[in-house]
Amino acid sequence: MTNIPFRVDPDPKMEKSDMTPAESFSTDDRTELNHTHFATGDEKLLVGTWECAPCREDIPAYTVNELMTIVSGRIRLTHSDGKVEELGPGDSFFIAKGTPVVWEITETLRKIYMIVE
Hints:
By secondary structure, this protein is an all-beta fold. It contains no helices and 8 strands.
Protein backbone atom coordinates (compact mmCIF):
# COMPACT_ATOMS: atom_id res chain seq x y z
CA MET A 1 0.00 0.00 0.00
CA THR A 2 1.01 3.65 -0.10
CA ASN A 3 1.76 6.39 2.41
CA ILE A 4 1.18 9.21 -0.07
CA PRO A 5 -2.15 10.81 -1.00
CA PHE A 6 -4.00 8.92 -3.72
CA ARG A 7 -7.18 9.11 -5.74
CA VAL A 8 -9.73 6.46 -4.80
CA ASP A 9 -10.67 5.01 -8.19
CA PRO A 10 -14.41 4.20 -8.22
CA ASP A 11 -13.84 1.59 -10.95
CA PRO A 12 -10.76 -0.41 -9.88
CA LYS A 13 -9.88 -3.98 -10.76
CA MET A 14 -12.15 -5.95 -8.43
CA GLU A 15 -11.67 -9.39 -6.87
CA LYS A 16 -14.23 -11.89 -5.57
CA SER A 17 -15.35 -11.32 -2.01
CA ASP A 18 -17.39 -13.43 0.41
CA MET A 19 -18.48 -11.14 3.24
CA THR A 20 -22.19 -11.63 2.51
CA PRO A 21 -23.75 -14.95 3.57
CA ALA A 22 -25.12 -16.91 0.58
CA GLU A 23 -28.60 -17.08 2.13
CA SER A 24 -28.79 -13.26 2.30
CA PHE A 25 -28.89 -12.78 -1.48
CA SER A 26 -32.37 -11.97 -2.75
CA THR A 27 -31.84 -12.93 -6.42
CA ASP A 28 -29.94 -15.66 -8.27
CA ASP A 29 -27.11 -13.17 -8.73
CA ARG A 30 -24.60 -13.71 -5.92
CA THR A 31 -21.90 -11.38 -7.23
CA GLU A 32 -19.77 -9.77 -4.55
CA LEU A 33 -16.52 -7.97 -5.38
CA ASN A 34 -13.98 -5.91 -3.46
CA HIS A 35 -10.83 -3.88 -4.03
CA THR A 36 -8.74 -2.65 -1.10
CA HIS A 37 -7.11 0.69 -1.91
CA PHE A 38 -5.40 1.04 1.47
CA ALA A 39 -5.01 -0.99 4.65
CA THR A 40 -2.95 -0.45 7.75
CA GLY A 41 -0.71 -3.36 8.76
CA ASP A 42 -3.20 -4.48 11.41
CA GLU A 43 -6.13 -3.84 9.00
CA LYS A 44 -7.89 -1.71 11.61
CA LEU A 45 -8.29 0.95 8.93
CA LEU A 46 -9.38 0.00 5.42
CA VAL A 47 -10.28 2.03 2.34
CA GLY A 48 -11.84 0.23 -0.57
CA THR A 49 -14.48 -0.21 -3.23
CA TRP A 50 -17.11 -2.93 -2.74
CA GLU A 51 -19.86 -4.17 -5.03
CA CYS A 52 -22.69 -6.53 -4.18
CA ALA A 53 -25.82 -7.92 -5.83
CA PRO A 54 -29.20 -7.45 -4.13
CA CYS A 55 -29.34 -8.93 -0.66
CA ARG A 56 -30.86 -8.38 2.79
CA GLU A 57 -29.23 -8.74 6.19
CA ASP A 58 -30.67 -8.07 9.63
CA ILE A 59 -27.56 -6.91 11.48
CA PRO A 60 -28.02 -6.85 15.28
CA ALA A 61 -24.77 -4.90 15.82
CA TYR A 62 -22.65 -3.46 12.98
CA THR A 63 -19.13 -4.81 13.50
CA VAL A 64 -17.09 -1.73 12.48
CA ASN A 65 -17.31 2.05 12.10
CA GLU A 66 -17.88 2.66 8.40
CA LEU A 67 -18.22 5.73 6.20
CA MET A 68 -19.57 4.97 2.71
CA THR A 69 -20.35 6.79 -0.53
CA ILE A 70 -22.56 5.11 -3.10
CA VAL A 71 -21.13 5.08 -6.62
CA SER A 72 -24.03 3.15 -8.19
CA GLY A 73 -27.05 1.13 -7.11
CA ARG A 74 -29.48 1.54 -4.26
CA ILE A 75 -29.74 0.51 -0.62
CA ARG A 76 -32.53 0.64 1.95
CA LEU A 77 -31.50 0.97 5.60
CA THR A 78 -34.02 0.32 8.36
CA HIS A 79 -33.04 1.72 11.73
CA SER A 80 -33.95 0.12 15.07
CA ASP A 81 -36.69 2.76 15.55
CA GLY A 82 -38.30 1.67 12.25
CA LYS A 83 -37.11 4.70 10.23
CA VAL A 84 -36.31 3.71 6.64
CA GLU A 85 -33.78 5.49 4.45
CA GLU A 86 -33.41 4.91 0.70
CA LEU A 87 -29.96 5.86 -0.57
CA GLY A 88 -28.48 5.99 -4.06
CA PRO A 89 -25.61 7.33 -6.19
CA GLY A 90 -23.78 10.24 -4.60
CA ASP A 91 -25.19 9.64 -1.11
CA SER A 92 -22.70 9.31 1.74
CA PHE A 93 -23.60 7.71 5.05
CA PHE A 94 -22.03 6.45 8.26
CA ILE A 95 -22.85 3.45 10.45
CA ALA A 96 -21.25 3.33 13.90
CA LYS A 97 -19.93 0.10 15.38
CA GLY A 98 -22.64 -1.61 17.43
CA THR A 99 -25.56 -0.04 15.53
CA PRO A 100 -28.46 -2.41 14.78
CA VAL A 101 -29.65 -2.05 11.18
CA VAL A 102 -31.45 -3.92 8.42
CA TRP A 103 -29.24 -3.62 5.33
CA GLU A 104 -31.10 -4.24 2.06
CA ILE A 105 -29.45 -3.73 -1.31
CA THR A 106 -32.31 -3.24 -3.75
CA GLU A 107 -30.17 -2.64 -6.86
CA THR A 108 -26.59 -3.91 -7.28
CA LEU A 109 -24.56 -1.57 -5.10
CA ARG A 110 -21.06 -0.20 -5.60
CA LYS A 111 -19.69 1.87 -2.75
CA ILE A 112 -16.42 3.43 -1.68
CA TYR A 113 -15.81 2.81 2.01
CA MET A 114 -13.55 3.66 4.89
CA ILE A 115 -13.67 1.23 7.81
CA VAL A 116 -12.17 1.84 11.23
CA GLU A 117 -12.36 -0.84 13.90
